[in-house]
Design a protein that fits this description.
elongated, 2 helices
């Protein structure tokens, strides 16, 4: 069953979609790898590393999610423009 159904789309993984997936996976890996940040030093303005490292990932994750969204939307627009031709 390698052929797509009639009238259906075939899923194609392109570089922008792979980068978008990577942007979404990086925060999960960073947070699930607890041994990498389970320590108190270095402190930042008196806050132990364990806490400020996790809080740093809030804006970083937001930024990576926005990048992934833009890449997927751009890819979707290009695909739709290609279908119209």
């Amino acid at each position: 069953m390698t052929e797509p159904p009639e009238g259906g789309r075939r899923a194609v993984v392109t570089l922008p979609l792979a980068v978008a997936g990577l942007c979404l996976a990086v925060p999960f890996v960073a947070m699930l790898w607890v041994d990498s940040y389970a320590r108190t030093a270095p402190a930042f303005i008196g806050i132990p590393f364990f806490y400020w490292y996790q809080m740093l990932w809030v804006p970083v994750s937001t930024l990576l999610t926005v990048v992934a969204y833009v890449l997927v939307r751009r890819q979707e627009r290009a695909r739709k423009a290609g279908e119209r031709r």
